[in-house]
Fold this protein.
Amino acid sequence: VQLVESGGGLVQPGGSLRLSCVASGFTFSSSAMNWYRQAPGKQRELVSAITSAGDNTFYADSVKGRFTISRHNAKSTLYLQMNFLKSEDGAVYLCSATRIGRGQGIQVTVSS
């Protein structure tokens, strides 16, 4: 099982980033997928989740209206579009496949 995140980096407050997570080693199209984040000194937080078919999504209150989760099953890829980023969104973002595994994570820094 491999989950590899990309698209992180440094962005100014109010900016946007799009995270991607390429999956392999399991049947991506059958798996619910999630994005978590962990900031230093804080508990890991579930940011967003999506069902295997992409027909149902969940967002933490802190990101609702700003982040959009999506998936492309034919490409085995999960996305997280992050708009209107705030300094408190800065964290390591990890994608996970429910009950299967998670990636190493990627750093997102929001700073002027």
Remarks:
- The radius of gyration is 13 Å.
- The chain has a mean pLDDT of 97.
